[in-house]
Amino acid sequence: MVLVERDRQLALLSHLLRGCPHDAGSVVVVSGPVAVGKTELLHTFCEKAAGAGIRFLGAAVPPARRHQPFGLLGRLLNGARTPYAQRVDAAVTDTRRTDGRVELLVREAVARVFLDLSAAEPLLIGVDDVHHADTESLQCLLHLARRLERSRIMLVLGDQDRTGSAHSELRNGLTPHVHCRQIRLGPLSRDGVVALLAHELDPRVAHRLAPGAFAATGGNPLLVRALAEDWQASAGSAGREPPFSLVVADRFAERVVNCLHRLEPEALALARAVAVRGEAPRTGREAAPAGTGGTGTRALTRLLEGSGLLHQGRYRHQAARAAVLGDLDSRDRAEPHRHTARTAHTVDDGTRRRATSRAAGLSAAEHRVGSLAAQGHSNRQIAERLCITVSTVEQHLTQVYRKLQVKRRTDLPVSLRLEEARGPAFPRSAVPQVRQTVCR
Ligand SMILES: Nc1ncnc2c1ncn2[C@@H]1O[C@H](COP(=O)(O)OP(=O)(O)OP(=O)(O)O)[C@@H](O)[C@H]1O
Ligand SMILES: [Mg+2]
């Protein structure tokens, strides 16, 4: 696959690798927002180096393994010779921790194994998705990283921008060392978008589509490629003229959702809240949306803007917003308790439910919360669905109980249960129409 706008970074990596045989080891953290091409850069570089005969050990950390102590080290040493793997095994067995840290003796023993490995020939170690690494492996890697200045090892780490603390330990812990570099990746520039499209499509078409593609993606390469695929799929449809302008369709929607699921949970929660509300909550004026765990809304918004998904707190393209809402809807379908509202009752009992609310004097917000509670949703689920905090849900419910003179949610009147939640300013029922209107 062609890599656009990464020549400078590849040249720097190659330059650093050339120092290894001369005892000038290095550490490089390839960092950046979601889906801007950290993995692609790391793979391209490591593949080329391994192809040129450099000894290479590599591992990526799947999110599911993040809590397995020393899981990352184990994966890395899969590619090492048995005696070395056995030495690491022996070092980490019965590990004790002091102040929550793997003790120095163990970290030192693990580092020694890698340094010994590099005695015979230079060693390139590549670890992707280090933000998912278990803390034990991370501590050992950090210890090794600090010792590489006069070694024959180059360590390259792929690290997504996140708000977690293990993450900042990695970056801050390495910054003071001269042999440690950071390569910051961001989305592609306007020219980069043209170049990427021109690689996939006819260059004239690429030039024509590029401004729209840049506006819709902010240069996020995953999304730009999706737009090229959408255009090709449409151009390939039997009996149709190739479309003149940008096509924003299924591939784009899929990749937007793919991007979302690469994010840390708090950023995912914010991305969903922005889709429902239409824009990011303004700090200070509104409470943080549920699921963001109090993490600064502004910091999370910046992460999403950095990836090209959002621009000034809003989705760059309505189809992206619709895709996120569609994903929320399918999540509702996968968890039946979330969609009781749409399937349990087909009776149109609007008159009766409006009468109940009016008679009881419920506000619109109280009605929405009360209706979801009557349908069996927990406070947390209601908060997630309406993008408000759990404490706001509790306050509304207290008012609902008082006004309807009931003590618990099981006593809420049946008529309330018939109500479909009407929270989002952008109704989910509008998603198919939005897709139809914006996808051509
Ligand atoms: N420089 C590039 N030129 C062309 N396409 C690219 C480039 N970088 C990335 N891509 C495309 O974007 C996709 C996403 O890239 P990649 O998975 O490397 O992102 P990432 O930064 O590692 O994401 P994550 O934060 O989830 O780890 C790739 O599969 C590739 O199709
Ligand atoms: Mg990656």
Explain how this protein is built.
With 440 residues, this protein is of the alpha/beta class. The chain has 3 domains: 7-184, Rossmann fold (3-Layer(aba) Sandwich); 190-329, no CATH class; 348-382 and 390-417, Arc Repressor Mutant, subunit A (Orthogonal Bundle). It is 54% helix and 9% strand. The protein has 21 helices and 9 strands. The chain has helices spanning 7-19, 38-51, 71-77, 82-92, 104-120, 135-146, 165-174, 190-200, 203-217, 221-235, 250-260, 265-277, 297-306, 318-334, 340-343, 350-360, 364-374, 379-386, 390-404, 414-417, 431-438; strands at residues 26-32, 55-60, 97-98, 101-102, 123-128, 153-160, 180-184, 310-311, 314-315. The strands form 3 sheets. Strands 2-5-6-1-7 form a 5-stranded parallel beta sheet, with helices on both faces. The longest helix is centred in the N-terminal third of the chain and has 17 residues, at 104-120. Mean pLDDT is 82; it is low at 336-355 and 419-440. Adenosine-5'-triphosphate binds next to α2 and α10. Adenosine-5'-triphosphate binds at residues 3-6, 32, 34-40, 129, 160, 196, 221-222, 225, 262.
